């Protein structure tokens, strides 16, 4: 019987079988950020333990840093400066590289690590951040952990991990115009529930996944955690290898050739058996948007808010009622036409160059509707620089978007900037939880093109009517 | 790490689906680089009608006098989904929660519980729902060694747990210390691994 890609990567990183389905896995890269990584470094220091391989650990300042121009260690978030400064000092003491404020490589850890060639196909990567699965888009085995586990990975270069079950999610057929990776993953979570991937490592395959850009594959894998999956990944192909080539920390010369020869074999065998398979025909996917407070509360953009009584069970029905109350909606309401107060493009889900290009194509020659606060936060300073080289910032700014420095920004509310109570926001982020983007803020998750179209219209709008015009 | 062996206490029902770590500890409640004092911010958006001034919402279940000091939480499916922030577990621990009983957990949260001496106990959804809907405070006895929960009518509900997690909780193990005992094996592995994958090393 053949092996799946996850099983192959597992086998090559297995240091010891600890019994009962648990293995000691070798960890190639440990990524940290100032919010939770600070606690991992602090924990180690308190125990008097050293970081085993500081050259293979990296810190990004992303969660708490301001994204306003002229930023410094001072942040709007109460106590935020201490997180930044203590993390910087602890990293320096441990000999770990920091992509700091002012560095032209700074940005969101899940954007920076692939961009810098730190995340590589076939590698194991961990970070005390749930969206570490993003790097699965390169064919890496990457997953989110807690701060205590991060300390374990730093001290031992290994982790004790329970073997996950395997799932293959196959997206076949061509994506309709105006439909992208964000719509694919929201569609999947809506169909199978926010807990649908629990216990699984998911390989995304199929012709539609092959056709996606590497950045879009990262978007797909990014939200595997919103499906409760342990991680998600896409087998590396020629597109991946081209994408990685020449990146600062990627192998060079003969090592590059050796790496590529290895990466070409990183595929699931034809006769690999998965514990679960899901097939989705892409012809069935429309631009998708959430109406409630869980990523599973998603419907086609042209659809309506579903009735709580039509939920699968009493618990789900209760959750839908709470969500309707929080979101200020009622069953049967149309999504299109709901007036909005905010539009946000950013986060580790959708802040890469192709996301900004797609949104700019909608915004070009148009203006954000009066009364809508529209913000674009590039995922990294490299993304920002590349976007500016193409003039995308001019398009965003002319339309009325704020154009920010990179960081996690208003993807979540850390006590600093936020959208207002009861304000309705269309957002390219990954979580529409209660209070996620501010106390009482109502978040609708959608693709960057849907966010852009909605910002222009002043209400939730179908991006398809804006494409190919303007 | 605090050991978990046997616990008898009141179980507070918070039976909602997909309670995320942002709800357990809102990001803004993580005010300093520390595990200390996070209990005050636990469920802040639900627990306080005025978060800034810490005015309690009398309707929130943990503010009911009978559940205020409950060491056990009865939760809905996918409890602790969302972010990896271990602060969610540190907040529960600081508040006094020692065991969360739910039909399923967010994976990272579940691991974080075990590493901090909180038992994430999985029971079938109908069992948790029945316990949560009992109406009056229930005194449960959780016995980790025996892998059972005893409910007031004397019924024993068996549960399963990964043996490694059980051992870590029962013994209060220092996971890093345990792994460092394997350092020679890790070094051996590293040598051959590096020979096979030299491009992953700087």
TrEMBL record, chain A:
One of its GO terms (biological process) is L-leucine biosynthetic process. Pathway: Amino-acid biosynthesis; L-leucine biosynthesis; L-leucine from 3-methyl-2-oxobutanoate: step 2/4. Its EC number is 4.2.1.33. Gene3D superfamilies: Aconitase, domain 3. The keyword Metal-binding applies. Pfam families: Aconitase. Its cofactor is [4Fe-4S] cluster. It catalyses: (2R,3S)-3-isopropylmalate = (2S)-2-isopropylmalate. The keyword Hydrolase does not apply. PROSITE patterns: ACONITASE_1. One of its GO terms (molecular function) is 3-isopropylmalate dehydratase activity. Keywords: 4Fe-4S, Amino-acid biosynthesis, Branched-chain amino acid biosynthesis, Iron, Iron-sulfur, Leucine biosynthesis, Lyase, Metal-binding. It is an enzyme of class 4 (lyase). SUPFAM superfamilies: Aconitase iron-sulfur domain. Coiled coil: none annotated. Heterodimer of LeuC and LeuD. Catalyzes the isomerization between 2-isopropylmalate and 3-isopropylmalate, via the formation of 2-isopropylmaleate. This is 3-isopropylmalate dehydratase. It comes from Niveispirillum cyanobacteriorum.
TrEMBL record, chain B:
InterPro entries: 3-IsopropMal_deHydase_ssu (IPR004431), Aconitase/3IPM_dehydase_swvl (IPR015928), AconitaseA/IPMdHydase_ssu_swvl (IPR000573), IPMI_Swivel (IPR033940), LeuD (IPR050075). GO terms for cellular component: 3-isopropylmalate dehydratase complex. It holds the Pfam family Aconitase_C. It is an enzyme of class 4 (lyase). GO terms for molecular function: 3-isopropylmalate dehydratase activity. GO terms for biological process: L-leucine biosynthetic process. Keywords: Amino-acid biosynthesis, Branched-chain amino acid biosynthesis, Leucine biosynthesis, Lyase. Its EC number is 4.2.1.33. Pathway: Amino-acid biosynthesis; L-leucine biosynthesis; L-leucine from 3-methyl-2-oxobutanoate: step 2/4. It catalyses: (2R,3S)-3-isopropylmalate = (2S)-2-isopropylmalate. Belongs to the LeuD family. LeuD type 1 subfamily. Catalyzes the isomerization between 2-isopropylmalate and 3-isopropylmalate, via the formation of 2-isopropylmaleate. Heterodimer of LeuC and LeuD. PANTHER family: 3-ISOPROPYLMALATE DEHYDRATASE SMALL SUBUNIT, 3-ISOPROPYLMALATE DEHYDRATASE SMALL SUBUNIT 2-RELATED-RELATED. This is 3-isopropylmalate dehydratase small subunit. The lineage of its organism: Bacteria, Pseudomonadati, Pseudomonadota, Alphaproteobacteria, Rhodospirillales.
